[in-house]
Each structure stands twice: as structure tokens, then as C-alpha cells.
Amino acid sequence: MEGIILAHPHPAPARRLVSSLVLLLAACGADTSAGTEPNTDAELSSSSGAIATTTTTGTGSTEAPTSGTTGDASTTSSTSSTSTDTGELGTTGSTSEPGTTGEPGSTGEPVDPGDEPPVDLCAHQDDAPPAVDAPKAINDDPAFIQVYVNNIENLKIQGEQCPGDWTDLIAYMKSIQPSPDLFLVQQISDSAQLDTLVKRMTDEMPGIFEGIIADADPWTQLSPCGKEKEKQTNAIIIRQGRFSVVGEKHVWQSWVNKDGACVRNNQARTRNVMVKLHDKIADKDVTVASLHWATAQGEGPDPACAKQNVLEADEKLHKKGFGGELVLFGGDFNEPDRKDNGDWRPWYAEANGDVGGALNYRDPIFRACKSGGGVQACLDDNWTIGGDKRIDMLFGKDGHGCRARTRRAHTITYAEAEAAAKELTGDTDPDLNYSEHRGIRAEFYY
User: Fold this and answer.
1) Is residue 171's pLDDT more than 80?
2) Closest by CA position to 237, among listed 209, 216, 214
3) CA 308 remoteness from chain centre
4) Is there a contact between 52 and 191 (Cβ–Cβ < 8 Å)?
């Protein structure tokens, strides 16, 4: 079987001479620690341990709020033992004693444990996900979680300098089962605007939702869309019935290319937020990050320092106190997956295990395109901005470093959101989109 290496067995005579020989063993170790956090990033972690959260209760919800929720991450804890994937290779369960099988060449001596081939923990990473029941309004299936991502562009509304109708996306989410378990949000204005989004989700959809924001009151910036977009930060929205927060959130600044060198960007909107969660239904831990990288400002193959950003994101997801049975990140990367000639950009080639990337994450949209054939044309159809670029994505892998299995990955078109809003309200403006960025949803399996 591919990935299994057979060690050469020791000759029996050599084993009979072991007792008469003295072996001198020397071990040499290497420091494999990831190192300390960059000094420029040290102040970005929460010093108090408190996570800014927003929680609302909808009158029509079918899910009870989490009791005793304070919004302080230091008061939330969980214990989860690592589960064994029953799809992995294991022992055969044979009851025959060593050396008594009667097989030709049997020495009658115990088998050296070193003769057993190593188990390939990722042998099944490209298998289809397990069969599950038809989705219900609220996802109570321990096998998977329902994840969304979107740059919501400060909840665009009619009459603004850059108008839109963000409620179309809520209507779409309401039309799809199951309700979101996770929603990774970029470009929310502040905690007050996150409150608005969380309340609307709780009022309109099954479940009670809670938000974790990078900065409750980010500093302002100039924007071509005026005052409505002068504050921008990022957030993670969780469904309380599915997840509880474990430990502290972690916030860090993205890299940007300035004069040919990667330096920390200074925009509030590029402050990424990460949190560890406990899945109360599956009894597993998940670490998830909402990312917003800087726009390209340099030259060469990596003009936005995107490769450095993705390498750091992977390091963050596995830092002490985080990790879990799944690690997920998603957001607005501000750099496409491909160059103009169709080649993969360095950051994407590093991230996507399906194209040989060393980080070995699963991009569920790519996976769906690969399964259907015509990858490049399919990816073109799944653009997220400008009608021709895919800069918004989701990625995931499991606790063994294997590509996460995914199903029903989908890019949410403006027409679909418009149709859902019309069905829900009977009235909508077809000229207003929910965002300049098209959102994505996918099921991620443990």
C-alpha cells in the first residue's frame, strides 16, 4: 500500500549474537520549537484574557442560550480526549502466537516491533466524507460542521456612498440547511456593528449566535467609500449550541510588502483573529481564524507577502493552547490563487495540499472543482470579486496534518441571495448586492 514502508527484518543469527555484544548508542537532538512570537506582534495578544463577545437571544429560536456565559474566555474550559479515526489502518486482531504459524521461513522467535510498517495517518484524506443524514435546520450531526466566510464590507445598505443590501446574504443563509455553525467575517466596523449582524442572524435563523471580534473599536482609515467604511476589523461568529470558547482569543497583524521587504501592515482591517472552540456535539476541539491580508504593494511573485502570511497563519493555528481535531482559516486574502498565466501563486501552492502544497490544507472549492473536472474553468466560475478573481477562500486540515474532508462547497452568487431575499420578503432591489465579495460555504468533516 502506498505510504507504507517495510523495514528489512534482522537475520536470526544476528539476534542470537546480541547478548554477546555491547552497543554504544549516541542520540543527537534538534530544536524543533517554532520560536518566540515576533516582537512586533507581542502586544496583539489579549493581556486580560477577556474576549469581546456579542450574544443575542431570538424569540423564535429553537436553541437555548448557553447558561452562565460571561463573554470572558478565561471562565470557559473544556476537556477533550483525542479520538481515534476508525478509518485509519490498525492491527489485524490476530490471536496466533509468534513463531507458531507454521508459515515457511518461520523462525519461532518473537517478531521485532521494528518490522511493523508505520501507519499512514493521511491514507484516507482524499476519501469521500462519511454518509450523513439529510441536513436539518440546526446541525446536530457530530460528523461535520457548517462553515461560511464573507467580507461583508461594513454591512452595506441602500443610500450609502457604496450602496448594497447585506440582508440578502442573511436570507440566503436562512434558505439553506443547516444553519451556520461558524461564520468567518471580514471588514466589520466595530462591536456595535457586529451586535447588529449577530442579532439579525439570531432573529432570522435557527440557533443563538455569538461574536468574537479582533478589535471592539478599531482605529479609522481613509476609504473611497467614505465614513461608512472608515472602521474595519474582523470577527468570528459561532453558534452557541454547537461551540463554546476555550481559552483566550489571539490577534495578530498581517504582513505587507513595502519597498521589497515584508513588514507588519498598519491597517486595523488586517488584524487577524483566532480562537479555540470546543464542539459540544462532537466532543472535539477546533481552532479557527478569520484573516484579512493587505493589498499588494510590491513587485515580484509575492507582491503582498501572502506566502509569509499563510506560513504564519499555519504556525498560529498550531501554537501552544490552540490546534485540535480540526484547524480552519478563511477570509479575504487580497491576492488570487492564480497568476495571469494560470500558474498557482506561491502562497496558494504552499497552502493547498491537492496541488502539492507542504502545508497540506484542503480548499473545499478546489476539491469540488477537481472532482467535477475542468478545474481552471470551474475556479473561474467561483470568482469572489470583480467577476474574475478568487481572493476569498476557506482552508482546513485535521489534527494529524491531513487534508480535511469536505462536502457541498459552494460560492454564493448574487442571484441566489437575491432570489432568497425575494422569496423571504417579497421585495428586493436587484441592483444591490450583499457585498462586493461573494461568500463561500462548505461542510468540514472530522
Assistant:
1) yes
2) 209
3) 17
4) yes
Q: How much of the chain, in percent, has pLDDT values that exceed 70? A: 74
- pLDDT one-digit tens code per residue, 190-235: 999 999 999 999 999 999 999 999 999 999 999 999 999 999 999 9
- Cis ω before 178 (30° cut-off from 0): yes
Helix (H/G/I), strand (E/B), else coil: 347: helix
8 A C-beta contact, residue 236 and residue 184: yes
> What predicted TM-score, i.e. pTM, was given to this entire model?
0.77
The residue among 234, 168, 237 whose CA lies nearest residue 204 is 168
pLDDT at 13 over 80: no
What letter does residue 433 receive in the DSSP assignment? Answer: -
Inter-axis angle of helices 414-425 and 167-175, nearest 10? 80
Q: Is residue 282 within 8 Å of residue 293, measured between CB atoms?
A: no
Q: Are 434 and 417 a contacting pair, CB within 8 Å?
A: yes
What is the CB neighbour count within 10 angstroms for residue 245?
27
Total residues belonging to the chain: 446
Which residues fall within 8 angstroms of residue 215, CB to CB, at 6 or more apart?
190, 233, 251, 268, 271
Strands (E), 204-260: 209-213, 233-239, 243-253, 255-258
CB 352: neighbour CB atoms within 10 A?
A: 23
> Hey, is 332 helix, strand or coil?
strand
DSSP strand pairing (326-332 vs 284-292): parallel
